[in-house]
């Protein structure tokens, strides 16, 4: 029989499953972010027990990702008032519009809830800034005016 018609199993024709990519750089998190990671690991460990087949493989893949995030997490200290850092709530004005964001770790980021990862361009531009300071952003000089900075409430 020709090799073209031979099929050993369905497994050899499946798409390969790759690991979930890690964000480059250190895994800096707030205390809230670490608690969210820990909760996600507990949730996945419970889910993997009752799962079978492809569903179990998918959960195990997610669990490997979250275990790695859990073990590499570095909790940043609460930032002091007045300087933008990870764990800061920043009120700023850009293009005439006032906004408020929390700067957090990657796993805690939720742009819809105004929680921005510290390596996001907007957050990265503001890191180290202080109130009343003008910050360059997106190729524009003094595009952002920092209005206030305080630690993110827990």
UniProtKB/TrEMBL annotation:
<protein>
    <submittedName>
        <fullName>Nucleoside-diphosphate kinase</fullName>
    </submittedName>
</protein>
<dbReference type="Pfam" id="PF01272">
    <property type="entry name" value="GreA_GreB"/>
</dbReference>
<dbReference type="InterPro" id="IPR036953">
    <property type="entry name" value="GreA/GreB_C_sf"/>
</dbReference>
<dbReference type="GO" id="GO:0006354">
    <property type="term" value="P:DNA-templated transcription elongation"/>
</dbReference>
<dbReference type="GO" id="GO:0032784">
    <property type="term" value="P:regulation of DNA-templated transcription elongation"/>
</dbReference>
<feature type="domain" description="Transcription elongation factor GreA/GreB C-terminal">
    <location>
        <begin position="80"/>
        <end position="150"/>
    </location>
</feature>
<keyword id="KW-0808">Transferase</keyword>
<dbReference type="GO" id="GO:0070063">
    <property type="term" value="F:RNA polymerase binding"/>
</dbReference>
<dbReference type="InterPro" id="IPR023459">
    <property type="entry name" value="Tscrpt_elong_fac_GreA/B_fam"/>
</dbReference>
<dbReference type="GO" id="GO:0016301">
    <property type="term" value="F:kinase activity"/>
</dbReference>
<dbReference type="GO" id="GO:0003677">
    <property type="term" value="F:DNA binding"/>
</dbReference>
<keyword id="KW-0418">Kinase</keyword>
<dbReference type="InterPro" id="IPR001437">
    <property type="entry name" value="Tscrpt_elong_fac_GreA/B_C"/>
</dbReference>
């Amino acid at each position: 029989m020709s090799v073209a018609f031979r099929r050993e199993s369905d497994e050899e024709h499946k798409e390969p499953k790759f690991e979930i990519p890690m964000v480059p750089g250190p895994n800096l998190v707030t205390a809230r972010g670490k608690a969210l990671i820990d909760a996600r690991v507990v949730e996945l460990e419970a889910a993997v027990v009752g799962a079978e087949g492809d569903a179990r493989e998918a959960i195990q893949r997610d669990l490997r990702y979250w275990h790695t995030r859990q073990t590499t997490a570095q909790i940043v200290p609460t930032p002091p008032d007045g300087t933008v850092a990870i764990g800061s709530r920043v009120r700023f004005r850009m293009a005439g519009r006032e906004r408020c964001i929390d700067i957090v770790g990657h796993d805690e980021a939720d742009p819809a809830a105004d929680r921005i990862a510290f390596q996001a361009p907007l957050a990265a531009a503001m890191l180290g800034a202080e109130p009343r300071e003008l910050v360059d952003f997106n190729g524009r000089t003094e595009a952002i005016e920092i209005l206030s900075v305080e630690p993110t409430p827990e």
